[in-house]
Amino acid sequence: MNRILIVGCGDIALRVARLLSEKYTLFGLLRNPARQQESRSAGIIPVAGDMDKPSSLRRLRGLAHTVLHFAPPPTMSPTDTAQDTALIDTRTRNLLAALSQGRLPQRLIYISTSGVYGDCAGAVVNETRPLHAQTTRAQLRVSAENQIRNWAKRNGVRASILRVPGIYAADRLPLERLKKGTPALVAAEDGYTNHIHADDLARCAVAAMAHAKANRIYHTVDDSQMKMGEYFDAVADAFALPHAARISRAEAQNVLPPMLLSFMNESRRLTNTRMKQELKVVLRYPTVAYALNQISLAAIKPRYLPAPVVEVSVSPRLTQLSLPLF
Predict the structure, then answer these.
(1) Regarding predicted confidence, which is higher, 315 or 280?
(2) Helices 90-99 & 136-155, crossing angle to 10 degrees?
(3) 3-state class of 107 per DSSP?
(4) Helices 288-300, 228-238: crossing angle, 10 deg rounding
(5) What pLDDT, in 10s, does the model give residues 71-116?
(6) DSSP 304
(7) What does the alpha-carbon distance between residue 229 and residue 293 come to, in Å, rounded to a whole number?
(8) Is residue 324 assigned to a domain?
């Protein structure tokens, strides 16, 4: 049975594990011991280690045939910029160094971000567009991508990069943001945002194991064409919440947190042709609107308890009838 190492055992990793645990032996690198039981329940064998401590990664040497690298770079301040500084994702550097010490994996799949493109002014973007990361977190993702692709070329490992936009699911929606009344931008100044359902992203990662070409970039994104405010309005409508108030971009600079502003300052529309044709992915949730409809139906669907059975005597001459009570 092939062995898979998952680095970064968060929500997407757990969803991937549900798809793979019956056919593969899954190992998961865990820094927090409190997460061990959750990982075991998903079919993942915990391996203690910290990507910020190279000496703790020795157990990864030769451990798996495939590595799913879902771990984010080191945390930086959301106000940091990367215009004049070359940044290195030290976690990816430490991971690749550990993997190089033993039998090399055959394949590595890395989840990156669509933020590596920076602001594209709403343009349609495919995987060949030059990168222009404008935040520290995006520049660190560029560093990780470059390290992985160079390492894979040197060592003959089949590496694939999945560039991921905003991830959502029933438990990953901006409901608290809407309840707090956080405003959105007026339509004329709003930017395009891209989305993928968490279940579809997990399926894309699994598909990449089977179908992705070596050292290839893939957008894992659905078919939606939405501006950010439209997304918030769609979620609000699905849950009977008020629409977010709309403000100008100049007003937003004074009232919105830096992290949210950094997302609002970037606008692009990712293509997914390569994902569909090469990874052979058929989206379970092709648009946000479709997914929200399914989530809403699941939320309001009546939950009937098993109907009790009672015996009712209808006539001395008839046998007793078993009827359900509702």
Answers:
(1) 280
(2) 20
(3) strand
(4) 20
(5) 999 986 444 454 444 689 999 999 999 999 989 999 999 999 999 9
(6) P
(7) 18
(8) no
Compute the Cα dihedral for 74, 79, 82, 85 and give only its sign.
negative
Measure the CA–CA gap between 104 and 247, rounded to whole angstroms: 52
Q: How far apart are CA 293 and CA 299, in angstroms?
A: 10
Domain with 262 in it: 3-298
CB 209 within 8 A of CB 107: yes
Which residues lie below 8 Å from residue 275, measured CB to CB, with a gap of 6+?
A: 204, 218, 219, 220, 221, 281
Global pTM? Answer: 0.89
Q: How many CA atoms lie within 13 A of 165 on its CB side?
A: 27
Q: Tell me how far apart the 2 most distant CA atoms of the chain are, in Å.
A: 94
Q: Is residue 322 part of a domain?
A: no
Determine which helix (DSSP H) or strand (DSSP E) holds 193, and give its type and residue range.
strand 192-193
The single-letter code of the amino acid at 298 is A
DSSP summary character for residue 21:
T
Domain assignment of residue 40, yes or no:
yes
pLDDT at position 316 is: 37
Over residues 139-168, mean pLDDT: 98
Rounded alpha-carbon distances, angstroms, from residue 53 to 34, 49, 65, 137, 270? 19, 8, 23, 20, 36
Q: How many contiguous H segments (helices) and E segments (strands) does the chain have?
A: 11, 17
Q: Output the DSSP codes for 200-259.
A: HHHHHHHHHHHHPPTTEEEE---S--EEHHHHHHHHHHHTT-PPPPEE-HHHHHHHS-HH
Q: How many domains does the chain have?
A: 1
In a domain, 307, yes or no: no
Here the CATH number for the domain that contains residue 235 is 3.40.50.720
Give the tokens for residue 79: 């106000």
